[in-house]
Design a protein that fits this description.
- The chain is built from eleven helices and eight strands.
- The protein is of the alpha/beta class.
- Helix 1 crosses helix 9.
- The two termini are 15 Å apart.
- 43% of the residues are buried.
Length: 319
């Protein structure tokens, strides 16, 4: 590492394990001071162990510190942002990575599980983004970063291909991740004048999430077997790249990373226009027109597990 992030302060939620820890380690190795925010819960969101964050921070050395409370409340999110500023003198990078998983087919879903997933995977990201972006904007006005203007601000939201393609039984998880991409777009627009770059990253790597996948068919089993070979350090490399000075102009984008492959995703835009020039549509006329739309124009129901069921570009499985 070259120390290109020296002087920056980062918060990584869910940063004590898996992808979050890989990201925290990468940022620390690049010179950033890192707050690992992780309450040590299980993948389902049950239980908590604040020591998990403390121990992970200890493994990174003096440039890291743990924060062991859940960020899924506005007050704690503000406390976390203030904690980073108090401990390290500022806040420049936020990686919203924390997530839980409570899968069920939509016709069997428990509303309490839905609420817990949305609160942890989406609302918490909004709470922290709101608190942290206010700090970053004030830093820009106060001259942090030097005479060239404040361009250190970065927010990276860890989304999922499940929120882009869908996956069986993941209504809550996919909805939260799709919402997180929507939050990415709006936050990028809101913070553009402040020169704070905001992006979304869809990772393909072994995590506690992929460990829980129960394949529904041979294609999904094959995907799981491949995904489990991919180290989280590849995700950390992409997040680290987005936090570097050269990437400051990249904002509002959706990227994926699978081993040594990086995907720049297109974003939803109209694929076809149907217009009734002479009069308002009738329901029957519009139904007939929709029925004649070329099949290739419509998006099929391929799951994310099936869409990326190809051999990843990796070399071994060690980080």
């Amino acid at each position: 590492m070259t120390g290109e992030l020296k002087g920056r302060v980062a918060i990584v939620t869910g940063g004590a394990r898996g992808i979050g820890l890989a990201i925290a380690r990468h940022l620390a190795d690049a010179g950033a001071a890192v707050v690992i925010a992780d309450n040590g819960t299980s993948i389902s969101g049950d239980g908590a162990d604040p020591a998990v964050a403390r121990d992970a921070a200890s493994s990174l050395g003096n440039g890291a510190i743990g924060f062991g409370e859940s960020v899924a409340s506005p007050g704690v999110a503000r406390q976390l942002a203030e904690f980073a500023v108090r401990r390290f003198g500022g806040l420049d990078i936020v990686v919203n990575n924390a997530a839980i998983l409570r899968d069920a087919f939509v016709f069997k879903g428990d509303p309490a599980d839905w609420d817990a997933v949305i609160r942890t995977n989406l609302s918490a990201a909004f709470y922290l983004t709101s608190a942290a972006s206010a700090v970053m904007r004030d830093q820009g006005k106060s001259g942090r970063g030097g005479p060239g203007g404040y361009d250190w601000g970065r927010i990276v939201n860890i989304v999922s291909s499940a929120g882009l393609y869908g996956n069986l039984g993941q209504a809550a998880y996919a909805s939260a991740k799709a919402g997180l991409f929507g939050l990415t777009r709006v936050t990028a627009m809101d913070l553009a004048r402040a020169k704070i770059a905001v992006n979304a990253v869809a990772p393909f790597a072994r995590t506690r999430v992929t460990d829980t996948i129960q394949p529904a068919n041979d294609a999904q089993k094959s995907y799981k077997d491949r995904a489990l070979r991919i180290g989280a350090h590849h995700v950390a490399t992409l997040v680290g790249a987005l936090c570097r000075p050269e990437a400051g102009a990249i904002s509002g984008q959706l990227l994926g990373v699978r081993g040594r492959e990086v995907f720049v995703f297109g974003q939803p835009r109209p694929a076809l226009r149907l217009a009734s020039e002479a009069a308002d549509w009738t329901a029957s006329g519009l139904a007939a027109a929709l029925g004649s739309v070329p099949a290739g124009t419509l998006t099929d129901l391929t799951t994310d597990l099936e869409a990326f069921n190809t051999e990843p570009l990796v070399q071994g499985d060690a980080p």
